[in-house]
Amino acid sequence: MNKKLKIYSSLFIVALIVFGLTSTFHYTTMGWTPASDNNMEFAELPSDFMSCDTLPDGGTVSYGHPYFTYDLNVLPWSRPDHKVLLSTAQGQTYKVEMQKIKVGIPVSRANSNIPMYIIGSGAVVSIIVFLCILYMVIKLISKIRHGEIFVAKVSKYLEITGILLTCLYLYELAVSYIVTQYFISHIHLADHSIVFKNECNSMFIFTGLALMIISQIILMGKDLKDEQELTI
Fold this sequence. Notes:
Elements: H1 3-24, E1 50-54, E2 60-64, E3 67-76, E4 86-89, E5 92-95, E6 100-106, H2 114-145, H3 152-186, E7 192-194, H4 202-231
Antiparallel strand pairs: 1-2, 3-6, 3-7, 4-5
């Protein structure tokens, strides 16, 4: 077994263990923090979301103001009075726990456009990486169609594709973590805290590492084939 194959195999096992642990266990130190303005309710939209003007005939017209929306993962605070959010309808009561919400922030009240820039840059990087992967796949298919499988270039294309997929996963994970930490510092929700949750596509890293392993197996097959041809 060559050195790269050992490294890639070890990384694959580590990724499986880390993914399993992060998917199974969740640790939080959130607690109840009472505040006089801590409230979540159904209400009319504030003026920085929508404004109304009165027409000469007595009617009204509404104007919506631009705002940013972000999907956030949240967890409810642990309340000392043991109160929970309940839903009652048609004589049936259920306990409701919000874990993911969409938050709207008016442009006029946004402290910074940093999250938009980070998310936008992430989308650009993802497009560039996918184009590179598409190019590698086209080159790989071309080699296979010509009957060239156990060759160095096929191994190289597979390895580069795997590295790109793995790096894309790690980059998206970093972007998600940075944006979540920014929101934790700048957005305060009633009875809930914003938490980081890894929602990146795990198939990127597992497929990437698998392709890197296969690339080394093909390289070993090429070396074995060369040795047999020399022997003959």
